[in-house]
Amino acid sequence: MKRRKNGDKQYFTRMGTRKKVHAFVRVKPTDDFAHEMIRYGDDNKTIDIHLKKDIRRGVVNNQQTDWSFKLDGVLHDASQDLVYEKVAKDVVSQALDGYNGNLIN
């Protein structure tokens, strides 16, 4: 907080308040969705991706096959309204109040 002086009064402003970056993933299944490759955590905040090894690259290879991500939220087959409520609503509201905000698709 910054200290400001206005005549005889002193007050604090919220300038300089730090917020953390939030990360969400939205998964929209399609007809050819790879259900066997993706596992969702029970907490709806983790996602694990597993790829089968490419046998054309040989028996011994250093191909990475597993990834695990911890996020602020996993939105599996979520509606546009739910995505807005969970992800964008606060950012849009704060932007209308004059704060910076980004949403990346």
Structure description:
The chain has 105 residues and is of the alpha+beta class. It has one helix at 80-96; strands at residues 2-6, 9-13, 24-27, 38-40, 46-50, 66-70, 73-76. The strands form 3 sheets. The chain has a 3-stranded antiparallel β-sheet, with no helix packed on it. A two-stranded antiparallel ribbon has the order 1-2. It has a two-stranded parallel ribbon with strand order 3-7. The chain is elongated and about 55 Å long. The protein starts with a strand and ends in a 9-residue tail after the last helix.
| Largest sheet, strands/sense/barrel | 3 strands, antiparallel
Number of helices: 1
Radius of gyration: 22 Å
Q: On the 0-100 scale, what is the average pLDDT?
A: 80
Query: What is the ordering of alpha helices and beta strands?
Result: EEEEEEEH
Structural class: alpha+beta
Shape: elongated
Helix content: 10-25%
Strand residue percentage: 25-35%
Show unreliable segments: 1-6
First-last Cα distance: 32 Å
Q: Strand order, biggest sheet?
A: 4-5-6
DSSP strand tally = 7
Task: Give the gist of this structure.
With 105 residues, the chain is an alpha+beta fold. Helix content is 16%, strand content 30%. The strands form 3 sheets. The protein has a 3-stranded antiparallel β-sheet, with no helix packed on it. A two-stranded antiparallel ribbon has the order 1-2.
